[in-house]
Design a protein that fits this description.
Elements (H helix, E strand, L loop, with lengths): L2 E7 L3 H16 L2 E3 L8 E6 L4 H20 L4 E6 H4 L3 H8 L5 E3 L7 H9 L5 E3 L20 E5 L1 E2 L10 H5 L3 E2 L2 H13 L4 E5 L15 H9 L6 E5 L8 H9 L6 E3 L7 H6 L6 H14 L4 E8 L6 H14 L3 E6 L17 H24 L5 E10 L4 E5 L5 E4 L9 E10 L2 E6 L1
Parallel strand pairs: 1-2, 1-3, 3-4, 4-5, 5-6, 7-10, 10-11, 12-13, 13-14, 17-19
Antiparallel strand pairs: 8-9, 15-16, 15-18, 16-17, 18-19
The structure holds S-adenosyl-L-homocysteine, iron/sulfur cluster (SF4) and FE3-S4 cluster.
Length: about 425
């Protein structure tokens, strides 16, 4: 009888790609993918703990499996990723959900296969968290699910310790893959027909720092030099490490997309310092100026946090001011969430929820108006879209242009994985509607 797996993924692109690695392992064990938990012989939750609500989602969904597991005792439930990697969390998870069979962290994700085999032969749960990050792994066989895009990790972990952030604690210190391995992977993905490569790291700009390997801009150039029509994206860039060389690389290689995600977090110098971001708002604006000097039409997107401990109305106004000044193409906005174990969790003046809520509403309104402005500029123009999927609900194909804007359109034939030209008739907030020409 065929065995099936179902993976539930929370969090960032790193986790999305980790789930592809998990899928690769499960398929080596003979499992095939299925769309629902009810049909699955193994359900894997690949969790995130960046904010409290990410954890709550996972808690809710793992809790819902209790009934299913009671009815189907042979079903295996595994919980892995960033959430159990937090100190003491695996035990909490085990107590809360005694029916979970396997609990693993981020540093031992590659051993899931062993844990499944071990679990098949015993009643007791397999709980294993590896405290330290290991060496960078090569030679895995992820089962990719995001064609025509392919995710490629270039670094793992993070050294920045922004005071609010849990990532350095659950992903370990920054490690870079060797450039020859990254470039070989890129080459083979292009040969396999992928049309977009996205290089992943918490701070891609510090790639290979302190080693004898090439720097990030050169890595981009070498990948862009691979034959074939494809797009090259990367995320995320930390403003403190964003360099003029990177702006030049984007300017001189048409395959590198003209969109940069450069999280600023706050526009207040006082708050930026307390966040340990290592730049001021003036430094940030200077980086934008350098980028625009070389790539005038580059779309810049960002992440913003409101309600960081001690944030005053003045600090918040500085954020609004900076957002207007840069004119972001779009932005992710977050209410600060206290993460146990981080420096900011111990700071005085945690901001009351109602204050943060009012601030985020004002910020979202501003960001939405900027997004609409950007989209409106497209109306009547034609842009090149890489079709990446079909939206079942809307009955439309969709894909992005090189600035990262999402376009929707009708097509008689399946054009997923193809570059198409879209004449934009209408802009709806963050997305565009048009006709193929
Ligand atoms: N490495 C990336 C971001 C990774 S996390 C970078 O440094 O830019 C993605 C975003 O989540 C962050 O940019 C930040 O805006 C947000 N974030 C991280 N920790 C948070 C917290 N404790 N509360 C609210 N938002 C948070
Ligand atoms: Fe977190 Fe800062 Fe590292 Fe980004 S750079 S992952 S926000 S610690
Ligand atoms: Fe979440 Fe871990 Fe990514 S905490 S945002 S899944 S690195």
């Amino acid at each position: 009888m065929e065995k099936h797996y179902h993976i539930v993924t929370y969090g960032c692109q790193m986790n999305v790609h980790d789930s592809e690695r998990i899928a690769g392992m499960l398929s080596e064990l003979g499992y095939t993918s299925c769309d629902s938990m009810e049909d699955a012989d193994i359900v894997v939750f690949n969790t995130c703990c960046i904010r409290e609500n990410a954890e709550n989602h996972a808690y809710g969904n793992i809790g819902m499996l209790k009934k299913l597991k009671a009815a189907r005792r042979d079903m295996i439930i595994a919980v892995g990723g960033c959430m159990p990697q937090q100190i003491g969390k695996a035990d909490i998870l085990h107590k809360k959900f005694p029916y979970v069979d396997i609990i693993f962290g981020t540093h031992n994700l590659d051993r899931l296969k062993d844990y499944i085999l071990a679990k098949r032969g015993r009643k007791k749960a397999v709980i294993e968290i590896q405290e330290k990050e290991g060496e960078v792994k090569e030679g895995e066989h992820p089962l990719r699910t995001s064609y025509p895009n392919a995710w490629i990790n270039i670094t793992y972990g993070c050294n920045n310790f922004c005071s609010y952030c849990i990532v350095p604690y659950v992903r370990g210190r920054e490690r870079s893959r060797r450039s020859e391995n990254v470039i070989a992977e890129a080459r083979s993905l292009i040969a396999d027909g992928y049309k977009e490569l996205t290089l992943l790291g918490q701070n891609v700009n510090s790639y290979a720092n302190g080693t004898d390997d090439i720097r990030f801009p050169e890595m981009l150039e070498r990948i862009a030099a691979i034959d074939g029509k494809f797009r090259l994206r990367f995320m995320t860039s930390h403003p403190k490490d964003f360099s003029e060389e990177l702006a030049k690389a984007i300017a001189s290689n048409p395959k590198i997309c003209r969109c940069v995600h450069l999280p600023v977090q706050s526009g207040s110098d006082r708050i930026l310092k307390a966040m340990n971001r290592k730049y001021t708002s003036a430094d940030y604006l200077k980086k934008i100026e350098i980028l625009k000097k070389y790539v005038p039409d580059c779309a810049v997107t960002t992440d913003l946090i409101v309600g960081f401990p001690g944030e005053t109305d003045e600090d918040f106004k500085d954020t609004l001011k900076l957002v207007k000044e840069v004119g972001f193409a779009s932005a992710f906005t977050f209410v600060y969430s206290k993460r146990e174990g981080t420096v900011a969790a111990e700071m005085p003046d945690q901001i009351p929820e109602e204050v943060s809520k009012a601030r985020i509403m004002e910020l979202v309104e501003l960001v939405n108006s900027l997004t609409r402005e950007h989209s409106a500029k497209y109306v009547g123009k034609t842009c090149e879209i890489l079709c990446e999927g079909f939206d079942e609900k809307r009955g439309l194909f969709l894909g992005r242009d090189e600035f990262g804007r999402m376009g929707y359109f009708e097509s008689d034939k399946n054009v997923i994985g193809e570059f198409v030209n879209l004449r934009v008739d209408e802009a709806n907030g963050v997305s565009l509607m048009g006709k193929l020409v």
